[in-house]
Write a structure and sequence with these properties.
The protein has a seven-stranded parallel sheet, with helices on both faces. It contains eight helices and seven strands; from the N terminus they run βαβαβαβαβαβαααβ. α1 (20-30) packs across α8 (221-231), α3 (68-82) packs parallel to α4 and α4 (109-130) packs parallel to α5. It has one domain (8-246): NAD(P)-binding Rossmann-like Domain (Rossmann fold, 3-Layer(aba) Sandwich), CATH 3.40.50. By secondary structure, the chain is of the alpha/beta class. The protein is globular and about 45 Å long. The two termini are 33 Å apart. Helix content is 40%, strand content 16%. It has helices at residues 20-30, 45-54, 68-82, 109-130, 157-176, 194-197, 202-212, 221-231; strands at residues 8-12, 34-39, 59-62, 85-90, 134-144, 182-188, 243-246.
Length: 262
């Protein structure tokens, strides 16, 4: 019997077999949860079809999280399919490519708003829309990075977005706590995902993390998924509003460089 047996999970952000969101969906399924998968672009459907089949996902939908009507439709479908949601996973982050090059000072207003909308505000929008179908004891988990607190050349506005995301976690946890709903974040270290590989200097950060972290090892998407599954389980029932570091201990070190995931 898995620790999530009988629970339902809606995972936003599955893009490829190598994404952290997929590792999370796979782990939640292995622990007994019924799974719904939500991806950003309709053209992704064919690529992730084998993944949907692999975990017997009962729901697989495209959703532009910048559109409140689209979010509402997904939540309505999830409610009718599952009868309610116990686990909501927000694994979404995106910024225009132009915002990840050059100086942060030169970030345009439009690029700043786009990055914050998808990477931070979407957690608020998803939570609001999901609230009517979230059962007491539900868990909401998002993914963040240490760039919320430190500067990484090239990560630019995404670091600001992660800071906003973590602040949102605390506000949501406070407001939803009386209803028995918990909200937490997992701050992932350097994990080799398609998004992370596009961050300037990521390969160097990954090698340094592997060589210098207290556990002296690199990270995988499965490491992050294990932490998400714990936050989704009854075992973390008294944990809310927290940012859990999953980085082999790298964040405790006083070094000039640190890994960041996408």
């Amino acid at each position: 019997m898995g620790q999530l047996n009988g629970r339902t999970a809606l995972v936003f952000g599955v893009a490829t077999r190598h994404s952290i969101a997929w590792a999370v969906a796979e782990k939640l399924h292995a622990e007994g949860a019924r799974i719904g998968i939500v991806y950003r672009r309709p053209e992704t459907a064919r690529r992730i079809a084998p993944l949907v089949k692999a975990i017997d996902a009962e729901l697989a939908l495209a959703c532009d999280v910048r559109d409140d009507a689209a979010i509402a439709e997904v939540m309505e479908r999830a409610g009718s399919t599952f009868g309610g949601i116990d686990i909501l996973v927000h694994a979404l982050a995106n910024a225009p490519r132009s915002a990840l090059a050059g100086r942060f000072t030169d970030t345009t207003r439009d690029d700043f708003q786009a990055a914050l909308d998808v990477s931070a505000y979407s957690l608020v929008a998803l939570t609001r829309a999901a609230e009517p179908v979230l059962r007491p004891g539900s868990s909401i988990v998002t993914l963040t990075a240490i760039a919320s607190r430190r500067v990484f050349p090239g990560y630019n506005v995404m670091g600001v977005a992660k800071a906003a995301l973590e602040a949102s976690v605390r506000h949501l946890a406070t407001e939803l706590g009386p209803a028995g709903i918990r909200v937490n974040a997992v701050s992932a270290g350097a994990v080799r995902t398609v998004a992370a590989m596009g961050v300037p200097g990521f390969r160097t950060m990954y090698r340094e993390g592997e060589a210098l972290s207290p556990l002296r090892r690199g990270l995988t998407a499965k490491d992050v998924a294990e932490a998400v599954a714990w936050l989704a389980s009854p075992g973390s029932g008294a944990v809310t509003g927290q940012v859990i570091e999953v980085d082999a201990g790298w964040s405790i070190l006083g070094l000039s460089g640190s890994p960041a995931s996408g």
